[in-house]
Amino acid sequence: MDTHTQKFKIRLGFFVIGGLTLFVLAIFIIGKQKNLFNPVFKLTTTFYNIGGLQVGNNVRFSGINVGTVDNIVIINDSTVQIDMLIRKDVWRFIKSDCMVGIGSEGLIGDKLINISQGSNNAPLAKEGQLLESNEPIETDAIMASLQVTAANIEVVTQQLAEIMIKINTGKGTLGRLIQDETIAENLNQTIVNLKKSSKGLNENMNAAKQNFLFKGYFDKKAREAKEKKSAKMKAEEKNK
């Protein structure tokens, strides 16, 4: 192939220009993600477990991407330090009592840092300040809890099924009460007797009211009730 022809030189020029364009574009995208072209300040926090968080993941404040995770360092067996680079244009909103948590992009997306809003009277966070953190809830722990709950529901369902079987077969007090016609008839008769007794008691009370020995007592009670009702009505009219 002749490398000195005009066509080859033009192709080589386009190839070099395309390569340089892709290189500059890649530098720009990476630099934007790493905040290389924006003035930033540094904040730090610690977690017991970061749940898969990685360097370069986003940092959000009020749901807006404001920075990236700059570094992850294991301090000891129970502490992991997270260094964050935050854009300086949002510095005035980051307070010293802001809390840091770990979230994710959707249900199965990449992990990210969430910075919650602080109180109005708190001072601004300083360069390199350590913010308090909320430990993330592990998905494995949630699944384990759901499994325990499902097992408990299964046990309760089985017990309810056993109770219903006993009731339907006439076992137990409730089962005998429902299935045994004799017990049901006795219960109905008891209710009828109670109604008759109540009716007889009302008749006895009416007879006692008509008796001259008790008539004065019942008349006095009636007058007192009437006076109380009249006094109540007068008080309501006065309040109006």
Description:
The protein is of the alpha/beta class and 240 residues long. It has 4 domains: 1-33; 38-136; 141-175; 180-239. The protein is 52% helix and 20% strand. The protein contains 5 helices and 7 strands. The chain has helices spanning 6-33, 139-168, 172-179, 181-210, 212-239; strands spanning 40-47, 58-61, 64-76, 79-87, 99-104, 111-115, 130-133.
Shape: elongated
Determine the mean pLDDT. Answer: 77
Helix content: 40-55%
Provide the low-confidence segments as ranges: none
Secondary-structure element pattern, one letter each = HEEEEEEEHHHH
Count of domains = 4
Give the strand order, joined by hyphens, for the main sheet: 1-4-3-2-6-5-7
Rg, Å, rounded? 41 Å
Distance between the termini: 112 Å
- Number of extended strands: 7
Write the layout of secondary structure elements.
Layout: H1 6-33, E1 40-47, E2 58-61, E3 64-76, E4 79-87, E5 99-104, E6 111-115, E7 130-133, H2 139-168, H3 172-179, H4 181-210, H5 212-239
Parallel strand pairs: 1-7, 2-6, 5-7
Antiparallel strand pairs: 1-4, 2-3, 3-4, 5-6
